[in-house]
Design goal:
It contains 17 helices and 15 strands. Helix content is 40%, strand content 13%. Belongs to the folylpolyglutamate synthase family.
Length: 492
Amino acid sequence: MLDLEEPISKMKIIHVAGTKGKGSTCTFTESILRNCGFHTGLFTSPHLIDVRERFRLNGMEICEEKFLAYFWWCYDRLKEKTDDNVPMPTYFRFLALLAFKIFAAEQVDVAIMEVGLGGKYDATNVVQEPIVCGITSLGYDHMEILGNTLGEIAGEKAGIMKHRVPAFTVPQPDEAMCVLKEKASQLDVPLQVAPPLDAKLLNGLKLGLEGEHQYINAGLAILLCSTWLKRTGHLEDSYLEQTQHCLPEQFIKGLTTASLQGRAQIVPDQHINMESSNELVFFLDGAHSPESLEACASWFSIAIKEDNLDQNLFGQQPDNSKLSHGLVNLQPGGRARKQSAQILLFNCLTVRDPQLLLPRLMKTCADNGVYFKKALFVPSLSVYNKVGSHSITPSESNVDLSWQFTLQRVWESLMQGNKGSDAKGTDAASDELKDDMEVSASNCEHSAVFPSLPLAIKWLRDRVQKNRSVRFQVLVTGSLHLVGDVLKLVKK
């Protein structure tokens, strides 16, 4: 209906599936090839604030004018030609079609397509002959659709492999790797395992995306890019061998300048007007599987301790005191010591299992000596399929909070079990957080449920105004939708 078969067959596509790290791997891949001088198209999901984030041309989200022109071109044709037998495509299928249309019309040199869910039956898997395929780390997610074992999940993801098209993956659990190898041999696919990037190859620079796990994604991106360059006639074989021992300058620049909203992102609240410093800082990571929450907790634990965080965000000279039981003692410029309190702001989809997610998060933080003073549970406020960033929020009175109460019960029972961990402590921050919770729907000893995200953020801002001696460090995780909603509210 959209006459896209031929344009898709001519596109030089990199197709990426996986449970964790798809977005990061695609972002690194796009950044490398853009820095090599190619005109790039990148399709990812979900979006955090505006649907246009899913369609990137040369690293920038598509402008509103072009987006609307392509949107209506596709929509009007489909509306005209669909009927009861062939109905309008669903939301994600429509967006995937739109991505193919945009990249074809804009004549990109390379289209990097991130699978939405699974692989075999994903809308992006209309690609018959990609140049190269990538499969990122596999784990348990969307089990209600993809299966209950790692083998079943791996089978779905391996569905993007095509006959004789090179594919790369990262080190995987044995159960998953066996399935990937079996599918590869059936399709005569040369499947290779990409080693994690050796940090020394970056010449002293840091990856653009934070977190130790990003070295795994970067290693995969390097092989996807070098294979794409080779198979499209831009590189000799010898160059491929080289990337393992010495990275070309464009690769280094691509890896160190890549950026992705909502993954290990630190944002001070830009709506609080402080004379000297920002006392409310959001640490945002859209982790939503047990493994990625563990990685998120490790990142958060390191990030709040890094002395340079204090220097960079607040322009103060930090002392070298170490974090103890969630409190940092700072004496910038000889002022009164400043404490910091860690707060968790959490929500996840009802298909996820909080009994798998929350213990991983809590234990990893506790292993690093970080304890949350309070956990806040909120419903999502996004209207996900709204075009543009002006979506309205539902009224607070009619929101069903039963899921948030479930999350709260899991958290409270975990905290009761951790009584012996010395996670408490009677300090100004703890006392300050105990009172004044009338805006919450349910306040327990260690947590509170708020009927809306704006109310939770208002409560945090009020705490900051009332207690200037404490810096609040808020970890926002469990859902990319929640992260996007918070970004919308705290960024100017």
